[in-house]
Design brief:
Largest sheet: 4 strands, antiparallel
Number of domains: 1
Radius of gyration: 11 Å
Helix content: 25-40%
Oligomer: single chain
Number of strands: 4
Structural class: alpha+beta
Length: 79
Amino acid sequence: MIKLKDKDTGLALDSITEEHLKFLVDQLEEESDEDQDYYLNQTTVDLFAAVDGADPALIDVLRKALNGREEMEIVWSRT
């Protein structure tokens, strides 16, 4: 399982699958091969929802993570 955290607060957000992580890696920009954080905003999540093959469960996790905020950074780790 992959755990997501709010990068600013360190609070745990939710867990995602390896397939969900692969989707994020494919869709978002990474600064390096070791990069484990991503910037998200409402527009990005809306675009993800329109991508063919996007898992609705992942979209739900990301919307809940934003929790009404316009943007945030998330960090992931394997457990």
